[in-house]
Amino acid sequence: MALISPSRRLRRTPFSEGVEAAGVKGYTVYNHMLLPTVFRSVEEDYRHLKEAVQVWDVACERQVELRGPDSGRLMQMLTPRDLRGMLPGQCYYVPIVDETGGMLNDPVAVKLAEDRWWISIADSDLLMWVKGIAYGYRLDVLVDEPDVSPLAIQGPKADDLMAAVFGDSVRDIRFFRFGVFDFQGRDMVIARSGYSKQGGFEIYVEGGDIGMPLWHALMEAGRGLDVHAGCPNLIERIEAGLLSYGNDMDRSHTPHECGLGRFCNTATAIGCVGRDALLRVAQEGPVRQIRALEIDGPAAPGCDRAWSVMAGERRVGQVSSAAWSPDFGTNVAIGMVRMTHWDEGTELTVMAPDGPRRVVVRERFWL
Amino acid sequence: MALISPSRRLRRTPFSEGVEAAGVKGYTVYNHMLLPTVFRSVEEDYRHLKEAVQVWDVACERQVELRGPDSGRLMQMLTPRDLRGMLPGQCYYVPIVDETGGMLNDPVAVKLAEDRWWISIADSDLLMWVKGIAYGYRLDVLVDEPDVSPLAIQGPKADDLMAAVFGDSVRDIRFFRFGVFDFQGRDMVIARSGYSKQGGFEIYVEGGDIGMPLWHALMEAGRGLDVHAGCPNLIERIEAGLLSYGNDMDRSHTPHECGLGRFCNTATAIGCVGRDALLRVAQEGPVRQIRALEIDGPAAPGCDRAWSVMAGERRVGQVSSAAWSPDFGTNVAIGMVRMTHWDEGTELTVMAPDGPRRVVVRERFWL
């Protein structure tokens, strides 16, 4: 690994001070912001995430805020998921597509009120697309990036930690719902959500000034719970089949190719700009799709570029994320495979940087 | 400095192999792509850039391509610079603004033909804004990111190196003009431009497969010229007053605040979506503006966040980029200062991370 050069362009977060004090060892850059990738080691962080509780600086999940009478109309223009039944207090995972049906982002939409939404984005400047559409259609809506920085609490002891800081009622938040809770006189939107399968919450921290007081309060309250600073874990997220925009999918893919067809209501999502382009793929299904892949051999190197997946001489897919899983004793991977070779148990060859390896298509992810 | 974690999301470039072989020591991330920041040391790279010639992997300057009958109209919608006199073969530095006049990017526009443009972008997903506007206005234009990766040749010996590979006629390219040259049977757009004041070229390499053959040819031809892999140099670009989007300016600033008023023809840029919002600032001038700043004391630490600039107890500006300049024997810096305190020679205080320092406003940059 090489060093990352600091600059203002790679934005720090309201929690960076805490992250540094906790001994962060590596970063990635996400939405022009620093995102920690490892504290002790990826393997130690993984084990700890599955056994205790971690506080994650995911401020890089920036918000695109929609405010005004046309917010709901604009939100529906962005996604093929039918939002008509969505109520304030709910969070929806929403594929965002352009007019060709290509994925622009895969955020969580937070409906704060009928006329106010947050879109909690993955790594692309979705703000630009949303502003462009709002302007082009002369919608009566304000679109901006507010000073809101998510802090995630993840792991099996997340409920206990959160209850210690916000009170027991935080335990009642249902999956992908949110409530508003007080911290030192400030309202905080807290959702039961997060980029792991270990359970937990995301706190939408409004106002950077309250970031470190909250960080310290969580660390203090979590002493008996073995709380530690953490971050999205490469191994755990692959085991769980949590896709990463820019790694496992991009603008060249439809939601259906990404296995996100269940979040698309192409027939009824009236107004979605990508609806027409997606109608056929929604009916016929895609010809390539995301698959869980198991790669033979010892721990594979880091996947910093697509690895071709071959059936003999023919390229039938690619691996986009891979890691050695201590719990499953194999290399877990995410890739995209053509229909002709995507059935469970199909044996293929992946061109890893250290040579070809056998890879087997699985029916589902590990968690 | 912390380590950067490799992943496919931080895209490699067609030249990454050459960059690694040349011993790159640090990276930043720019348009979701790796951009080298240092090879030998920032100071050694700086000295060498001013004396010899360097090959820069600036593939991260991604292109937004406009094709079709409405390309010209769309291009003018994006910028307050009047493009009516621009001819194919010319490059224009164009501030790009949203409907509020806020800077979205500060790219170089390359007019390939009346109906075909490349926008060679700074660090923001401008593609999304351009696509949104094109879709909202139902323009007859295709907008996409092509497989084009700029490679810059910078330094006083750039002409000699380029002539050795492309022939002597490359010397005739005028500043911010381009020509089309052959390399191994492939057409390459070559412009006299680049992100330094040492002179040189940018080669728009179409097709990633030809990247390393070109890299090797340049290194081979430059042996006698002390050619070396390089990258945009922090010290030199501050001396030269070359702004960096995301560091020195962002969406909250108008072009006029960025000192880019000379690239705005607000009265005549008919169709620019930010024109109305910019009319007043174009007439009255901004109340804060980019300034060259000289910071007292020994070498300042890296500027990874805005440093407040104070007049007594009052915040009157900020420093956004800073570095120790060996040639000028001072800390050179870029900042934004309020009108009340921006006159040449004004002495202020900058809150550097290692304590307050005296800072003096200069009339112009160093180069």
Commentary on this structure:
The structure is a homodimer. The first copy, chain A, has about 375 residues and is an alpha+beta fold. The first copy, chain A, is about 20% helix and about 35% strand. The first copy, chain A, contains eight helices and 22 strands. The longest helix of chain A is centred in the middle third of the chain and has 11 residues, at about 125-135. The interface between A and B is large, with 49 and 49 residues.
Give the key terms.
six-stranded mixed β-sheet; alpha+beta; Alpha-Beta Plaits; 367 residues; homodimer
Give a brief rundown of this model.
Chain A contains eight helices and 22 strands. Chain A has 367 residues and is an alpha+beta fold.
Helix-strand blueprint:
Two copies of one chain form a homodimer.
Chain A: E1 3-4, H1 16-21, E2 26-30, E3 33-38, H2 42-51, E4 53-57, E5 63-67, H3 71-78, E6 91-93, E7 96-97, E8 103-105, E9 108-113, E10 116-120, H4 126-136, E11 142-144, E12 148-154, H5 158-166, E13 178-183, E14 186-191, E15 200-206, H6 211-221, E16 227-230, H7 234-239, H8 275-284, E17 288-295, E18 307-311, E19 314-325, E20 330-338, E21 347-352, E22 355-361
Parallel strand pairs in A: 4-16
Antiparallel strand pairs in A: 2-3, 4-12, 5-10, 5-11, 6-9, 7-8, 9-10, 12-15, 13-14, 14-15, 17-20, 17-22, 18-19, 18-21, 19-20, 21-22
